[in-house]
Amino acid sequence: MNTASRVLALLLIAAPAWAGAQNAPPATDIYLAELKKEDVGWLSVTNLDRLTDRPSYDNQPSFLPDGEAILYTAYQSNGQTDILRLNLSSKASRNLTSTPESEYSPTLTPDGQHFSVIRVESDGKQRLWKFSLQGGEPSLVLPDVQPVGYQVWAGSDSVILFILGNPPTLRLFEVPGGESRLLAEKVGRSLNMLRNGSGVSYVRKQSPDLWLIQTTDLKSGRTSPLARTLPGSEDFVWTPSNSLLMGKGSKLYQHRVSDASPQPWREIADLSEYGVRAITRLAISPDGKRLALVAEH
């Protein structure tokens, strides 16, 4: 990978591992809100709580299966990032990685005993690694696959990866074989499996002014559009009731996929009174009752 491509790759996942404090990524915090389903099927948002409060990058939250803790990416004073585990009741965090390399995008693996990460290695390679939740040395998942930007597991023997390039592509890889199949091109960073596991959903950036959330069935390869994104927003998450959530600015929006509406997004919360602005990444607890969101500090 040439120098320009490497810089672009690092910027796409977060801050470059080699950047000093003066080039640190934007300061972001993680918030936790409760979701309540109203009688008409729309959600309400209550009890917003700030989980992190540092003048630095705390980002990319993902819930553990019991919904009582999250994993997230934290930028450190030495210019690299580690993965931390945060207990939601105590708000206590502890490092799960503490390495010379930078790790991003923690994602629980299907066995429930490990989490995978995108690791920026000392030579600039970006590959998929996994760590045990109990500690120990990491292992490479797909040694020959890079540069990887994002990930979502499709099962114990397959993983879907955002591969950096021009254009970026979405590919399904066999694990551990590494054989791949192209699913889509011009994709965004937000990858979510459908609740039934039959397909993957993502944002396809057809043009600067047309971003679509769409799905690809993993067996047939058939692609189906779901909705246009909110302008300029690319992070979304599914609820157990088959709705999509997105953020824009200080507001949260819901789209009920079953509604055939030309204006699908409905505002369900304005969090500006809490000082929340520029909402980006979202994660939802397995029971659908809690939402973790990232916003600028």
Plain-language structure description:
- This protein is mainly β and 297 residues long.
- The chain has one domain (3-296): 6 Propeller (Neuraminidase), CATH 2.120.10.
- Helix content is 4%, strand content 49%.
- It contains one helix and 24 strands.
- The strands form six sheets. Strands 2-1-24-23 form a four-stranded antiparallel beta sheet, with no helix packed on it. A four-stranded antiparallel beta sheet has the order 3-4-5-6, with no helix packed on it.
Query: What CATH first level would be assigned?
Result: Mainly Beta
Question: Radius of gyration, rounded?
Answer: 18 Å
Number of strands: 24
Strand content: over 45%
The helix/strand class is mainly beta
CATH topology: Neuraminidase
Helix proportion range: under 10%
**CA-based shape:** globular
Mean pLDDT: 91
Say which CATH homologous superfamily is assigned.
TolB, C-terminal domain
The number of helical segments is 1
Number of domains: 1
Order of helices and strands: HEEEEEEEEEEEEEEEEEEEEEEEE
Task: Give the distance, in angstroms, between the N- and C-terminal Cα atoms.
Answer: 33 Å
Summarize the structure.
The chain is mainly beta. The chain is 4% helix and 49% strand. The chain has one helix at residues 3-13, and strands at residues 28-37, 43-50, 58-63, 69-75, 81-87, 93-95, 102-108, 114-120, 126-132, 139-140, 148-155, 158-163, 169-174, 180-185, 192-193, 199-207, 210-217, 223-228, 236-238, 243-248, 251-256, 266-270, 282-284, 290-296.
